[in-house]
Amino acid sequence: MKLAIPKILLLATFLNHQQQHVDAASASNGEIGIAMAGGNVRAASTCAGVLRGFQQKVVISPTGEEVPAMDLVKYNSGISGGALPSLLYTYAQVSTEELLETNRTINPAMITSEMLQHMPTNSMGFVFARKPKARLIIGLTILRGLINPLNLFKTHSLWSVGNYKKFYEPLNVPKNKYFTSGQEELDHILQENPELKKKDFLLPREGVKTMPMILFSMIGDRADRAKYMVNYFKIMDEVWTKYGEQVPPEHITNSFDNRPSMTDVVLSNLDDYDGNMVMPYVVTPDVVENKYSGTALVNKNKVEFPENPTKPFQWGEGGRFGKRKRFSVEFLSSMSTNFPGMSGADMEWTGLFTALRNIKLSDGSTSTRKFADGGRSDLLGIAPLVARGVENIISVFNFNQNPPYASLLGTYADIYKFANATSIEDPDFDSHFQEWLKRINPRISAYFGYFGSPANNGDAIVLNHLFHDPNLDHLKNLMVKYNSLFKAGEPLIVTMKDLEVIDNPFWGTEGGKKTNLTLMYFNMPKKFSEKVSIEVVPPPEAPEGQAQLDKIDSDGRFNNVLMSTIPELNPDPVKQLTLSNSQINMVGYLGSWMVHHSWNGLRGHNGELMFEGFGKIFEKN
Questions:
Q1: Per-residue model confidence as pLDDT tens digits over 251-306
Q2: CA 504 → CA 117, 334, 385, distances in Å?
Q3: Which of 390, 353, 372, 399 is nearest to 38 (CA)?
């Protein structure tokens, strides 16, 4: 069955949007949002360290009070591994000082081996380093199956149970509670819904001002036998084929004026496969929303998107075999982090691990939808903040994953070896920029309308052209500034000001707005590593007859075996379960140091200002 989608209507709004310069006023709402990228425990530890840095930093609030900088952050936008610190920051039932260990030093010279090994049980670091009780969870699942065979159909709940046991139970988060934004909102809910009780809800920890914003993806209906995702992959195949036909082999040049619109290419292929796109859903404590504009056939139901925004406590039931399962913090976490449900070619099998919710349809019937990791939609967590109209976005990420040129274990030093131009006037700038685009995170370049090929970019980026930048000037400046900061041994932090937002039907963004995007590439700056004591990170003993290694290599990375991969910890899910307290803590120290060290700005190798500093972002708010 093919679903007739009026392509002309869909295309009309977006036709030639790349060539149309947006006459937009600067954003003025003053809101700050932190976008915390995915990447398992590695990403979670990275973001937790940055949160600590902002929590330690005292600023003046609009009312003239001295408050932690985090009090001025409206949203922590999290996806996959980044969803964990986002949710824990707001809902962990321990003090913020304990949770983030704000008493830890910001001076790398003061770090000791004992400090690295110490991990308080009421901290984020503890739950990230803590080994899950996999045998206990599997054993209980088998026992439940023996007691009642119907429980064997609840494989989708395993991920939620594991999430809760590892990340939330140790920090006293109560199980299976609705969540909301505060007492005032809860009072309103209880007044409108007298059947509910205060004890049914989880409130933010006292004093917390920042709310989580969590992304996950809808990937079909439980009864569709993975047809939805099969159609989706067919759409992706055709999209890349047709996009490639419009782009000559030599498309990676210094002129990008004639690039085709990936958004238009995607829209033109939807009706051949029932409009079955992976749908991004975004949740805050006040709303569950989907802003995609279009129609899709979900199993046998024709669904018009966007669906009506819904309060989290009213959003669906727990699936055919879990009607009493509330839409809780741990369930939301399990949806956003559920990469097993999105992995592998056999989506019918891996789909057994997806989260399920019974969604009421307009005709009164219900559809048991499947939901999984939001990384299929946007692995950086930036798009939800742009769609919400946040003016100042601080993106924290520490991966590239741009094969075959860059892997998750790669570093910025690996990129710099191929693309080290520190000026647009460099006579070899064009070739350097071409090499840089091959290796930098493709999820970043996609925001600006640059798409390479499916061989090194896949399908997770085709929906995400958000900013007007026809000649990639913003990306060129980003490369120059990153290279200059890397050469100076500084953190890689750059703000791209007044980015012009364009219409995007997948995220519901509207042209005419602007945003400021600060990209915080989590690398190992030499100015950090050179200050850490050699007693803390001793290099390995050299074989007899060979020179002893220095504490750090020429790129500033530790030669110590345990610390050599900081901060690019092995992303393999099994390896992530073996990370030590020392590794998690070193990442945390690095994150908080980056915030403090960069507060008043960063200068490149030639002394020019490359980043005005986080102080500029927070002071004007």
A1: 544 455 667 789 999 999 999 999 999 999 999 999 999 999 899 999 888 888 98
A2: 47, 28, 14
A3: 399
